[in-house]
Design a protein that fits this description.
The complex is a heterodimer of chains A (about 500) and B (about 425). Chain A has 4 domains: about 15-165 and about 365-410, no CATH class; about 185-300, no CATH class; about 300-360; about 440-500, no CATH class. Chain A has 27 helices and 6 strands. Chain A has helices at about 30-45, 55-65, 70-80, 80-90, 95-105, 110-120, 125-140, 145-160, 170-185, 190-195, 200-205, 220-225, 235-245, 285-300, 300-315, 320-335, 340-345, 350, 365-375, 385-395, 410-415, 420-430, 440-445, 450-460, 465-480, 485-495, 500; strands spanning about 250, 260-265, 275, 280, 380, 435. In chain A, the strands form 3 sheets. In chain A, strands 1-2 form a two-stranded antiparallel sheet. A two-stranded antiparallel ribbon of chain A has the order 3-4. In chain A, strands 5-6 form a two-stranded antiparallel sheet. In chain A, helix 16 (about 320-335) packs antiparallel against helix 17. In chain A, about 55% of the residues are buried. Chain B has about 425 residues and is α/β, with parallel strands linked by helices. Helices cover about 30% and strands about 15% of the residues of chain B. Chain B has helices spanning about 15-20, 25-30, 35-40, 75, 110-115, 130-140, 155-160, 205-220, 225-240, 260-275, 300-320, 390-400, 405-410; strands spanning about 10, 10-15, 50-55, 65, 95, 100, 115-125, 170-175, 190, 280-285, 325-330, 350-355, 365, 385. In chain B, the strands form 3 sheets. In chain B, strands 3, 7, 8, 9, 10, 11, 12, 13 and 14 form a 9-stranded mixed β-sheet that branches. Chain B has a 3-stranded antiparallel β-sheet with strand order 4-6-5, with no helix packed on it. In chain B, strands 1-2 form a two-stranded antiparallel sheet. The longest helix of chain B is centred in the C-terminal third of the chain and has 20 residues, at about 300-320. The chains are: A mainly alpha (about 500), B alpha/beta (about 425). Chains A and B meet through helix 12, helix 21, helix 22, helix 25 and helix 26 of A and helix 6, helix 8 and helix 9 of B.
């Protein structure tokens, strides 16, 4: 492991990518290459400056999962607008570490059929869930396509699916790839349509069992309440009608050799006329009924308002200015649901200027807390799945929220769990999580005692700790007669346990 | 049933005793609104119960637990899914000639027969929403049908409007990762997923200096985070002195394996520790069964089994301490009266509450049965004949010593139904 002078190594090198004996892939040389590339990239990183004092700092705090000097430098080199534009086009970003992570989890790129037959039916549902959870954490932490990862998190909650729900151990993996990740920065109408056809969603909300004569209303309700219009913008009669529109939507059986692929079964479709949100659908619509509903809901101005508010809350503030929300909704309507266009308005300098400083700080959810610790540091990982176990103890394991509304994103709901966060930090830096280890020398080699606190601040946040947090940290360090391994671990624990590290 | 001294009074069940002596009837007739102000200001009972809130997320199907087999409409509306009457294969066990207990819920029979478990049918939140999230929100905020901004929960307002029962250091605990809405804004209340590990972990040598440093950081930060830190440190000190990890259930109680059972054992341990905790919440998820209900062997049977074995274990474990505890089981709504085409039931309206404890007037099913005939249904769902706020307010008044109904439920004047003494 190479120790890099000055700026922290953004590529966590071999620490970033797990060496998984399970899959036995010979990735040693690839990892070495990746480490060299990122080491080369670091040499161009300028001196790190405090975050949050500039618009770029704010942008970085919102569209990344944690500080790292390479993206910091990239953003300053490109400038605000060009950096945002680059992140809006993840396909143009070389992502060596992200690709290496993906390569180590064979099931996340396999077909539903292969996962279902090859693992789920063999009693290996937990392997499937483990690979999806773990790869999700690692990609969020280490991918260079950070805005894409943030949007994946956003849509994963918006179209929440609990993959502990029997065969969703296999189905959700495909939904994550083909629905969420594929359309995360695309067009909302296509995203909604892909979700409606997703076997994972169909299974989770019972739409695959929704048949003529005995409709199952679950999906019909949630596609309006959660995915598009928001509660209060439809009637119970609309719920029943929308459910009838989606009758017959299902997926192929395992005997087809293409398990989980979308299948419309006309014999189960309710072909009677329907009225949805005041629109009359004639008899005999077949598959077109559901497709009409997807289009109708996606094009509805109330959907634009709903999504705009959620996006602004996710990225800007718990209480975003109404004017910004209005502009984002307008962008949605003008572009027929282009997600990039909405994000350009969310992050327009004229939008940010309307968000008062005092309303900007958001409280990191445990997933974000974890990624923002991983991203700037090097960890040795032989059992990266332990990261998701640790998140489970914080109540935020990916794909585990049982109800379709997704994990909440509210300060008062998460901030009460301080003790669990502190305990997690102690475990992580105390090497008490099996298979995950941290060596303080990767941060503090050669650093004199007087600079330990500021070094921790610089490495973990780019210098964003509040003055009072930094002062308390310095007081802690200076009380020790000498620098020990235990002291350095404590400093890391305290830094990531500090109030300013909980906020972004 | 030997571990509850109050259970039998001269060979009678407690319920029989109450009924015969007219106490239950007297209790039923009290209307809170009609109480003189002085009485209202001084609720009875010096000893206040610990309130245990068990929230069944997703919409619990009460009809499949406490089965109204005496209503023939049940079998017309749910020809496949209804639990059969007593005497038939997989039938219910008779409770009172009209209702019967589902096979998967049989562990509830012991506290029921001891007169310490009460079913309240046709009970729920009058808010018309059939959305889980809205129904839960308005119910837990204690503000159904009044969709104004309410930032606190009803349980939080109960704690705010009554003096601490003990030191006040830790008054409410949600055995979970985050507080439920009912406890939003509650004083001295924290979510604690695992009582046993609730301390400052890490090297013992630096415990004090780390603790001081964290305290200094959060104090300087101020605001809500600082307030939470203060609560957290006090709670760590309090709970750290108790060995929750080695808690042994009493009276031969056996909790269901897993998170739910473990948390109920934590409830008993917290009650037994007697450290001033007044309110404990535990949630169970998974009740939203639109398809494959499985009331005999499937999903619902599993949930009923978990619920009823859990309640049985808690009741058994607490023993004489049941006199200091009121357990309240609730859900956002019941299910649709008719079964759907997927052997499931969609979102409904009227639901069911279960009360358990030494001061519960149990061994019966409370509430006028709303009926499952078409004219009796509310848009195809069971109607609400008992407002959940009535039951909560009665428990708050009689068992928690809190007469401030209008603080707990700003827009509701409760009627008491004689659920507790």
């Amino acid at each position: 492991m190479t120790s890099v002078e000055g700026a922290p190594p953004v590529a966590a090198g071999e620490g970033a990518v797990p060496r998984r004996s399970l899959l036995g892939l010979g990735l040693g040389s690839a990892l070495a290459i990746a480490a060299q590339r990122s080491a080369a990239a670091q040499s161009t990183a300028p001196h790190v400056q405090p975050r949050g004092s500039s618009e770029i700092g704010f942008l970085l705090s919102r569209i990344t999962n944690g500080f790292d000097p390479v993206l910091f430098a990239r953003a300053h080199a490109l400038g605000y607008a060009a950096f945002l534009e680059e992140q809006l086009h993840p396909e143009t970003i070389i992502d060596v570490r992200g690709d290496l992570i993906v390569a180590q989890f064979t099931t996340i790129t396999a077909t539903t059929h292969a996962n279902y037959v090859g693992h789920y039916l063999q009693g290996r549902a937990e392997l499937l869930r483990n690979e999806l959870r773990t790869s999700t954490i690692l990609r969020a932490a280490y991918s260079s396509r950070q805005l894409h990862e943030r949007m994946v998190e956003f849509w994963t909650d918006h179209f929440n699916i609990d993959h502990n729900d029997s065969m969703n151990a296999a189905l959700k993996t495909t939904d994550d790839r083909e629905v969420i990740r594929k359309h995360a920065l695309g067009n909302f109408s296509q995203l909604l349509g892909a979700s409606a056809r997703s076997a994972s969603m169909g299974f989770y909300l019972g739409n695959y069992r929704n048949i003529a004569g005995s409709p199952n209303e679950n999906y019909g309700r949630e596609i309006m309440e959660l995915h598009t219009l928001g509660v209060g913008n439809y009637t119970e009669a609309d719920v029943k009608a929308v459910a009838r529109c989606f009758t017959g939507w299902g997926f192929k059986e395992v005997t087809s050799g293409d398990f989980g692929a979308f299948l419309f079964r006309p014999q189960y479709h309710d072909n009677n006329p329907k009225v949805v949100l005041g629109h009359s659908l004639p008899a005999g619509g077949g598959l077109l009924d559901g497709e009409f509903v997807v289009r109708l809901l996606a094009q509805h101005p109330v959907t634009a308002d709903h999504l705009a508010l959620k996006l602004c809350r996710f990225f800007l503030s718990y209480d975003p200015p109404a004017e910004v929300v209005r502009r984002v909704a307008q962008a949605y309507m003008e572009t027929n649901g282009d997600i990039k266009s909405m994000l350009r308005v969310v992050f327009a300098l004229s939008s940010i200027a309307l968000v008062p400083q005092a309303t900007r700080p958001k409280y990191k959810r445990p997933f974000h807390l974890l990624t923002s610790i991983l991203r700037p540091l090097k960890f040795q990982m032989t059992a990266p799945e332990q990261l998701s176990e640790a998140l489970g103890k914080l109540g935020h394991q990916p794909f585990r929220w049982p109800t379709p509304n997704g994990y909440p994103d509210k300060l008062d709901l998460w901030a009460s769990g301080e003790q669990a966060r502190w305990a997690f930090a102690s475990d992580l830096f105390g090497n008490a999580i099996p298979g995950i280890s941290f060596d303080p020398a990767t941060v503090f080699a050669g650093v004199p005692q007087s600079e330990i606190a500021s070094t921790a601040n610089l490495r973990l946040t780019g210098g964003a700790l509040s003055p009072s947090d930094l002062a308390a940290l310095q007081t802690f360090v200076s009380a020790y007669p000498a620098v020990t391994d235990a002291l350095l671990r404590d400093v890391m624990v305290l830094t990531v346990s500090s109030p300013s590290f909980q906020l972004y | 049933m030997t571990h509850n001294d109050q259970t039998h009074i001269e060979g009678q069940t407690r319920r029989e005793f109450l009924v015969k002596t007219g106490l239950a009837a007297a209790a039923t007739s009290v209307v809170a609104a009609g109480l003189p102000r002085t009485a209202s200001a001084q609720p009875p009972g010096a000893q206040r119960d610990v309130l245990v809130l068990l929230y069944m997320r997703g919409g619990m199907d009460g009809v499949s637990i406490c089965v109204p087999y005496g209503d023939p409409e049940l079998y017309l509306r749910r020809p496949t899914l209804a639990i059969r009457p007593p005497g038939q294969t997989n039938g219910a066990t008779n409770l009172d000639g009209f209702f019967g207990l589902s096979p998967a819920a049989l562990p509830l029979m012991a506290p029921y027969q001891a007169g310490q478990l009460l079913f309240v049918h046709g009970c729920g939140s009058t808010d018309p929403s059939r959305s889980h999230f809205d129904a839960q929100k308005f119910m837990e905020q204690g503000n159904p049908n009044q969709h104004g901004p309410v930032s606190t929960g009803w349980a939080a307002r109960h704690l705010m409007s009554s003096p601490p029962a003990g030191s006040g250091v830790l008054r409410g605990v949600a055995l979970d990762y985050m507080l439920p809405r009912s406890l939003a804004g509650a004083p001295a209340t924290l979510p604690i997923a695992e009582l046993a590990g609730f301390k400052l972990t890490g090297p013992i040598q630096s415990m004090r200096s780390r603790s001081r440093t964290l305290g200094a950081m959060y104090h300087a930060h101020g605001g809500e985070l600082a307030a939470i830190t203060g609560k957290t440190f006090q709670a760590m000190n309090l709970l750290g002195s108790i060995d929750f990890g080695n808690y042994t259930p009493q009276n031969g109680a056996v909790y269901p394996a897993g998170e739910w059972g473990g948390r109920l054992a934590n409830v008993a341990a917290l009650v037994r520790a007697d450290i001033g905790v007044e309110l404990i919440e535990v949630d169970m998820h998974g009740w939203d069964l639109h398809s494959n209900l499985g009331p005999l062997q499937g999903s619902l049977a599993f949930l009923m089994d978990q619920l009823s074995r859990g309640l049985n274990a808690l009741w058994t474990d607490l023993g004489a301490l049941n006199n200091r505890v009121t357990v309240m089981v609730m859900s956002e709504f019941g299910r649709r009266a008719d079964e759907n085409g997927n052997l499931g039931v969609d979102h409904g309206h009227g639901g069911m509450m279960i009360l358990m404890g030494g001061n519960v007037v149990g061994g019966r099913v409370l509430g006028p049965w709303p009926g499952m005939g078409l004219p009796q249904l509310d848009n195809g769902d069971l109607a609400i004949t008992v407002d959940y706020r009535d039951i909560v307010a009665e428990v708050a008044y009689r068992r928690l010593g809190n007469p401030n109904f209008l603080t707990i439920f700003p827009n509701h004047t409760p009627t008491f139904h004689g659920a507790v003494v």
